[in-house]
């Protein structure tokens, strides 16, 4: 097997700013790489996550014009951790506003975890605007996936972390953690809200790595990060991400003509491979790469190798 690919060298944005998308929301965005090169939009995970310097490094900066942004309520976008006018369909509309801002007729869409969900929702809404799709850690927002993460499934793999996750909740709320957490995360008690946010985000951190990574746990439980992730994720999951159960698979016919590559960790306990397999069955033309020693995060060696090979291929580079 050839040597695994890793990050391109660090780069800085050549442009950045905030875009007023209405409803009182202003989105932080940045463009990196080469202006006028192959356009791509990067969709981060969560919902409630953000962007960092390493996200830029999954693309050859000489060949890509990379637009990264932080979704409503996330990171440097304002208002911080806001749930108002914050739905999947608001985000789909925001992506179109960003495309128009950049002056692109079409672009490649790259998203992992929740970003894969949003990528599919955007592509199925605006298939004429998408040239290719690169997806990681597939999440289809199905009831079985919610149940895996918040009822029975991941709890069997991480029983000690599951108990930590349930600890902030009243006994009578533990059969429906998403609803019980919502009451706390939207409440007025700031201390209880922060405790709940850290517990919610810690549970996610436990499920996203193949082996324990203290740095990931520290990042996920940092108060500002935890508050945005917990509030926005809970808000989306409580509302089924504003998607009908099975909707993304039902509407896959709208995008089957678009070239696509999926990179999926075999041991992903956050978004298990069953969703990627279901997507592949509905979309036979997509290339599915299951990484046998991979979990959920984009920067794990095998997952990162698959993602960079995908972006290189769609930029016309020969395989190494």
How would you summarize the topology of this molecule?
Layout: E1 15-22, E2 25-33, E3 38-43, H1 53-56, E4 64-69, H2 88-102, E5 107-112, H3 114-125, E6 130-136, H4 143-150, H5 154-157, H6 159-166, H7 177-185, H8 190-207, H9 214-221, H10 223-238, H11 247-250, E7 260-265, H12 273-282, E8 287-291, H13 301-314
Parallel strand pairs: 3-4, 3-5, 5-6, 6-7, 7-8
Antiparallel strand pairs: 1-2, 2-4
Helix pairs in contact: 2-3, 6-8, 7-10, 8-9, 8-10
Record keyword descriptors for this entry.
alpha/beta, 8 strands, 13 helices, 320 residues
Please, could you describe this protein's structure?
It is a single chain. The chain is of the alpha/beta class and 320 residues long. It has two domains: 15-143 and 243-314, Rossmann fold (3-Layer(aba) Sandwich), CATH 3.40.50.1820; 145-241, no CATH class. Helix content is 41%, strand content 17%. The protein is built from 13 helices and eight strands. It has helices spanning 53-56, 88-102, 114-125, 143-150, 154-157, 159-166, 177-185, 190-207, 214-221, 223-238, 247-250, 273-282, 301-314; strands at 15-22, 25-33, 38-43, 64-69, 107-112, 130-136, 260-265, 287-291. Strands 1-2-4-3-5-6-7-8 form an eight-stranded mixed β-sheet, sandwiched between helices. Helix 6 (159-166) runs antiparallel to helix 8 and helix 8 packs across helix 10. It is globular, with a radius of gyration of 19 Å. The termini are close together. The mean pLDDT is 97.
């Amino acid at each position: 097997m050839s040597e695994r690919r890793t990050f391109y060298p660090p780069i800085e944005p050549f442009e950045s700013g905030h875009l007023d998308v209405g409803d009182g929301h202003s989105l932080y965005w940045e463009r990196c790489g080469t202006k006028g090169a192959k356009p791509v939009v990067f969709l981060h995970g969560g919902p409630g996550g953000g962007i960092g310097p390493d996200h830029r490094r999954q693309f050859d900066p000489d060949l890509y014009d990379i637009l990264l942004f932080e979704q409503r309520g996330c990171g440097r976008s304002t208002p911080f951790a806001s749930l108002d006018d914050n739905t999947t369909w608001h985000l789909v509309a925001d992506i179109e506003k960003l495309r128009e801002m950049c002056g692109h007729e079409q672009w490649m869409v790259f998203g992992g975890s929740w970003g894969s969900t949003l990528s599919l929702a955007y592509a199925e809404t605006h298939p004429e605007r998408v040239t290719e799709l690169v997806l990681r850690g597939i999440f289809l927002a199905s009831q079985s996936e919610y149940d895996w993460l918040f009822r029975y499934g991941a709890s069997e793999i991480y029983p000690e972390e599951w108990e930590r996750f349930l600890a902030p909740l009243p006994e009578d709320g533990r059969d429906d953690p998403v609803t019980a957490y919502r009451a706390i995360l939207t409440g007025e008690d700031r201390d209880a809200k922060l405790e709940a946010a850290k517990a919610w985000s810690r549970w996610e951190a436990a499920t996203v790595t193949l082996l324990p990574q203290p740095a990931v746990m520290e990042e996920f439980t940092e108060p500002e990060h935890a508050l945005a992730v917990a509030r926005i994720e809970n808000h989306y999951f409580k509302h089924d991400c504003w998607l009908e159960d099975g909707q993304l698979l039902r509407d896959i016919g709208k995008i089957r003509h678009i070239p696509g590559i999926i990179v999926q960790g075999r041991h992903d306990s956050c978004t298990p491979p069953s969703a990627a397999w279901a997507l592949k069955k509905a979309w036979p033309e997509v290339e599915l790469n299951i990484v046998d020693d991979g979990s959920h995060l984009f920067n794990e060696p095998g997952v990162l190798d698959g993602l960079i090979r995908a972006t290189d291929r769609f930029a016309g580079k020969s395989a190494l």
